Known about the structure:
With 265 residues, the protein is an alpha+beta fold. The chain has two domains: 9-196, PAS domain (Beta-Lactamase), CATH 3.30.450; 204-261, Arc Repressor Mutant, subunit A (Orthogonal Bundle). It is built from nine helices and seven strands; from the N terminus they run H-H-E-E-H-H-H-E-E-E-E-E-H-H-H-H. A hairpin with a 2-residue loop joins strand 6 and strand 7. Helix 6 crosses helix 9 (252-261) and helix 7 (222-229) packs across helix 8. The protein is globular, with a radius of gyration of 21 Å. 25% of the residues are buried. Residues 16-23 have low confidence and may be disordered. One of its GO terms (biological process) is regulation of DNA-templated transcription. Residues 198-263 form the HTH luxR-type domain. InterPro entries: PAS-like_dom_sf (IPR035965), Sig_transdc_resp-reg_C-effctor (IPR016032), Tscrpt_reg_LuxR_C (IPR000792), WH-like_DNA-bd_sf (IPR036388). One of its GO terms (molecular function) is DNA binding.
Amino acid sequence: MASKKIVTYKDLLSDVYYPPKDIDCMEVLQLLRQAESIPQYLLPFKGCIQVIDYTQHRHVALNGPFKNMTGYDPRDVIENGLDFVIDIFQKDDFKIYNEMIFGQATEFLCNNAQEEHSSYLFTYSYRSRRVDGKWMQIFQQGSYITDSKSKQPHYGIAFIADISPLKKDTSMIFSIDKKTNEGGLCNYTNLLTNYYYPEPEESKLSKREREIVGRLADGLSSKQIAGKLFISENTVVNHRKKILKKTNTRNVAELIRHAYMKGII
């Protein structure tokens, strides 16, 4: 059986033009009001709220300190549509976002019940160009309102922030979390976290990291590896976290399988 085609960001913009009647714009307004009502001190960073209408290829709302953050007038961004957003997207980052990350998001939505889509939180990071030509590291976190039949995004609402002072590397993060309400408290369960590297050198394991992978494959604990390599156990733990991140593996068992498959050990 032929595999289902992954829908990229550009595919979505090419295929979707008119909002279906069964998507209630009031739902978008309600989400926007909810987002605007969140106290700033509860947000991870200072930023702004955006609402994108994919059916019209443009933003329909940009609030908060957008101009201070980017230098662009929100009215110009709304007027120029998503082609403008793509134009200021760092080209290597956009290639990964378009061909790999957004496709994972649309595939995930297609594989899950449409009525649950609003409970999923999607997080991205990427580089975008300010009006002065400088690059910003953008943190974006939000949800999608989808078509009841195709399950494809028709609206996206997200919090965006410039995290350049905190993030100096070029790696991109993509994660999916599910929101649950228990006892009046909102909790999130991580379902997926992947890292991508526009600059391949950043994803390569160092000699020391490859050595640690080999020791892990031998069945040694972090404490035992520390003794063998004459380094602290904490250093081994930190190396292991970086190795899992670089290889997009969730645990040591996955890492060892990945290492054998890729010829790392």
